[in-house]
Description:
The structure holds 2 protein chains of 2 kinds.
Chain A: H1 5-20, E1 26-30, E2 42-45, E3 48-52, H2 53-71, H3 82-95, H4 100-111, H5 117-130, H6 135-158, H7 165-168, H8 180-192, H9 198-220, H10 225-237, H11 243-259, H12 264-278, H13 281-288, H14 292-309, H15 314-342, H16 351-381, H17 387-403
Parallel strand pairs in A: 1-3
Antiparallel strand pairs in A: 2-3
Helix pairs in contact in A: 1-2, 2-3, 3-4, 4-6, 5-6, 5-9, 6-10, 8-9, 9-10, 10-12, 11-12, 12-15, 14-15, 15-16, 15-17, 16-17
Chain B: H1 3-6, H2 56-59, E1 64-65, E2 71-72, H3 87-97, H4 104-108, H5 113-126, H6 135-145, H7 162-174, H8 183-192, H9 210-222, H10 231-240, H11 258-270, H12 279-287, H13 306-318, H14 327-336, H15 355-367, E3 376-377, E4 382-383, H16 384-389
Antiparallel strand pairs in B: 1-2, 3-4
Helix pairs in contact in B: 5-7, 5-15, 7-9, 9-11, 11-13, 13-15
Zinc ion (ZN) binds next to loops of chain B.
Catalytic activity (chain B): geranylgeranyl diphosphate + L-cysteinyl-[protein] = S-geranylgeranyl-L-cysteinyl-[protein] + diphosphate
EC number (chain B): 2.5.1.60
Enzyme class (chain B): transferase
Amino acid sequence: MATDSRGSRLLSDLNSAFRRDPDIDEYDFLPVLEPKHNRSPLLLQEHKLGLEMWSVRILYDHAYNTLMAWRQKEAHAKFLDPFDLISLSRAVVLVNADCLTAWNIRKELVESSDLNLLDDLKFGALVLSRHPKSPETFCHRKWLLRRYVECCLSSSNGSTTSTGSLYNDFVNMDAIDFDLEAEANNFLLMENNLHGMNQQTDFHEVMRREMNVCRKAGENYPCNYNAWSHRSWVIQNCYNCTIQVLIGELHVTEAWVRQHISDHSGFHYRQYLLTNIHKQADILKEQFSLNYKNLIHKEMQIVVDLLKSFSGHEAIWYHRRYVFQALCKVCDSEAVAVEIISLPDGYDQDLPIKTSQKKTKLENERQVLLLKEVDSVSRNHMSKKDTFQKGLAQKYLDWVQKSCRS
Amino acid sequence: MKESSVLPPRIEPAYSFPLNCSTNLAKGKFPPVCNRRGKMHVCNPCYLVSEDHASPVLLWDAYVFNSKGTPIKDVVIPDSAQKSLLLQKHCDYIASYGSKKDDYEYCITEYLRMSGMYWGLTVMDLMGQLNRMDKDQVLQFIQQCQHECGGISASIGHDPHLLYTLSAIQILTLYDAVDMVNVEKVVEYVRSLQQDDGSFYGDKWGEVDTRFSFCAVACLSLLGRLDAIDVDTTVEFVVTCMNFDGGFGCRPGSESHAGQIYCCVGTLAITGNLHHINADLLGWWLCERQLPSGGLNGRPEKMPDVCYSWWVLASLKIIGKIHWIDKEKLEKFILACQDEETGGVSDRPGNIVDPFHTLFGVCGLSLLGNETIKPVNPVYCMPEDVIQRAGIRLELL
Ligand SMILES: [Zn+2]
């Protein structure tokens, strides 16, 4: 393959851009299709990097071929030191974020301590600024985060604090007005005054940034499946689905979904949070005096508001399906709980009768809930002129009547 | 076809089911739909599960407005759109695709080359022209992509991954030549990626996704070696990814997504566990993916896309609900995505074609009953005769 000498020059231009400004936070390809002047096709301004389009292919060809020749251990392949590998793989994934092998080379560099884990998280955020749904970029981040969490947990194990302490640090926060970002900042101030707690501080700061990365990716690309599923992965794997964090996230994403009413992924994220809060309903009640049922009612209120203001959005109607079936489940479990409490001793012999009565009662409760829901949707959406919204409302009614009967 | 015959059973006679908000829409003004073909745009045919490909800004070009002006994400198929299947053109397009090796697009897609070859070769076989491809070169390439660990990579020198291991085994099965690689090592590689909870890593770095469960199960079943993994826990894991809407996501609790649904339904079909599926509920969700244009999207409020005609349609076929969608309209949508000059199929009418959407367009038409194409197996996305020859018999719902 004929090597284009411009390739290696472009690569060193790119390296010097990152040296001059380690805080580049966005980049893009500029629509300049041919070299027009004698200057470098790389522009760096206020942490934004621009690459003229014509140079992208040349840079990529050079970086990709050099890196892959090394990886294949080809006879003519150049010896590359860790710095070369970092800069070549950086050039490759900036252009082609889904090049799995280039990301894997970076994982190996992290393992050998030639590449700093936190630096690579920061670099991945930059890649996502231009490729907001790149699956391999998110995949690489998960690997980095797993490694980071393991490292934090194993070192806190050795100290006086227990393994779970990182997660439990959130316990002291006010759950109801919990704003993850603001609270994390307060937390940082508080923590910085404490001696020897830097590791926890870093942990929360890293996670706060991670949430920000997900939010930005979700904003740059609507219905971003990978970004939102990454966010729920972080909640589960880095925060162990701690209830404080779930409540905090529920709080901060409310404004977001109100502004992104077509984004089913955003709504689904709230479904994920609510489902996991439900699993810890007892803790919710004991520690925060919050009732899961109230949270579901509040969610229904958000849905009702949005449907009133915005017509014709399938995503909101789909979210209503989730909320309503969750409401039905709460209703069932409450009915069962009442039955159990009111069942006096010695009634075991009558159990078959009791069970059938219980079942009828359950069905009745459901029926009432369903009738109310059908009535409310019919009144508010079926009499309007807007035929599309009416169609969506009709599909919703069909669905709940089929799925939530009992 | 009369409309009532494509509707699923109604629960209440007064209610009309999923389809057809179409009659209500689109009577108002349309923004001009611009033809994006010819613009500089590198299509990135994603790997096993595809997301949509156009830029979010461009999507507005194609918004359809209902009578009140609410945008509905869909396309308008112009009257001039292609209405017949241009099989010979598609064969020529695929046959010449690999010959432009200096192309930037060819170079930048090397990271998924093995899947790209699977798309091209499978669609050629379905169109009856596999003999036009260079078999020896393909087989030799696959041999060179097998690694010490047994896994197979997208291209020579790239890292092995389950996605490309499956693509390679699919190609080898197409050519009835699985012995060209070390099968025992492939089986060992797949087995080594299974976790205690039944899930699969995509490769040694530890990403978990239901797509990888499908890759593992499809790959081993083609090799007749399903016994190498713990099938029970595999199924258990997939079932934990089922949502309240009957759909499946990439991990437990993840959003339902047509591509993930295909993978999960496929895994359950291969292992004989389709009874875990609530076919009415899932079928409902799937056929709500059909838009007024006839095209299917992969999730609510997304644009229609030809590759979803495959993920959704194949899933509906497996669970026995394919009659729930309007087949004629979908056929019209897929045919409108052909490029009559270059051959090939794109994601939406007027966009740039690629081998990925060409395969899924042709497969979709095959499932819809087009008899000029070989019947396609909905689980493996391979010609039915090849699956029969491999000795695989699956029970669908
Ligand atoms: Zn597509």
